[in-house]
Amino acid sequence: MQNIGADVFLWLFKAELQPPLATAQPEVWQYDLAIGNPQLETEMKAVILLSGGLDSSTILYQAKADGCECHAISFDYQQRHRRELRAALFVAQKAGVVKHQVVNFDLRQWGGSALTDDGIDLPKERSLDEMSQNIPVTYVPARNTIFLSFALAYSETISAERVYIGVNALDYSGYPDCRPDYIQAMQEVFQLGTKQGREGKPITIIAPLINLKKTEIIQLGNQLGVPWELTWSCYAGADVACGVCDSCRLRLAAFTELGLKDLLPYAQ
Ligand SMILES: [Zn+2]
Fold first, then answer.
1. Which CATH homologous superfamily contains domain 20-257?
2. Where exactly are the structural domains of the chain?
3. 51 Cα to the center of ligand 1, angstroms
4. Order of strands, edge to edge, in the sheet holding 99-104?
5. Which residue has the higher pLDDT, 188 or 29?
6. pTM, whole model, 2 decimals?
7. pLDDT at position 134, please?
8. How far is the CA of 7 from the centre of ligand 1 (A)?
């Protein structure tokens, strides 16, 4: 049996308060809230892709409302905005998930996105119109295929029935892996690429936000009680949201359109 050193134990203990984002991490970071919360376990297990942003936090609360036993999964891929993982931790804790895991891998090895390559500038101060023109440089090559593959493997391991993903085709991003035809194709992969699927118990992808506007997502989240102040959307990678990257601007525009105040502090 592997011996767990005192420093690792201490680190795990502290992890409940704050993930150690700036230090070396083991392959998979996780904490287990099942201890002391057996009442959270239900018949239907769901894996929720949780980045810590508005959309993924909303689908976590949707999965809860749907009566699922929620297993959240987040990804530390050395993204510029790793600050979002702290938000994911706080939201997962607030929602009372059964388990939250952070999987580590390094997409900076080849970069190719403003989120994984410091040599590519983050677009700033763009209008919603400008954002809708092209697939932006914040697109991370095949990111959702990577994420869904991890989620699928994890789901089959724990015999989950559902994977929740907060993709949205209308948020001006134009990301190819956020579109309905892509999700449909991945559903086929889920069906054909797993033992569970071949044996007649396929894992279903649930993407309830795919055709919603950002304002509608916030309205849904309000109904579900999503703690917006714990979420994180900014791409810029600082401790305070920048207010001018595409993600901040979309978020702020939606709150403003609804006549609501975003309680998150902004640099500008
Ligand atoms: Zn920002």
1. HUPs (3.40.50.620)
2. 20-257
3. 15
4. 28-32, 99-104, 69-76, 45-49, 162-164, 204-206
5. 188
6. 0.85
7. 85
8. 35
